[in-house]
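TL;DR need structure tokens for one chain.
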Amino acid sequence: MITETEVVRLLEDSGLSLGEWDSGTELVLDSLAFTWLVHLLDERHGVVVPEEEEERLGASDSVGALHRNVLRLLPAGSGREEAGRAS
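>> reply
TL;DR here they are.
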């Protein structure tokens, strides 16, 4: 399960400093941060971002939107439903 907190950790490890945040915290992902985010999703969680989903993921405009878009990439039965309700 990937929580919003884990998404923020990935963002911070990708070079974004969010400080205090909540689901509505605005995001602007530059190409370097996005590339690192995609790499870390794969490396730490085994989540591969298909090319056809990159635009949607990169266009996420808040922490909550990014979290929801990441959850869409998880295979069924991997905690996607529970994680969506928990955030």
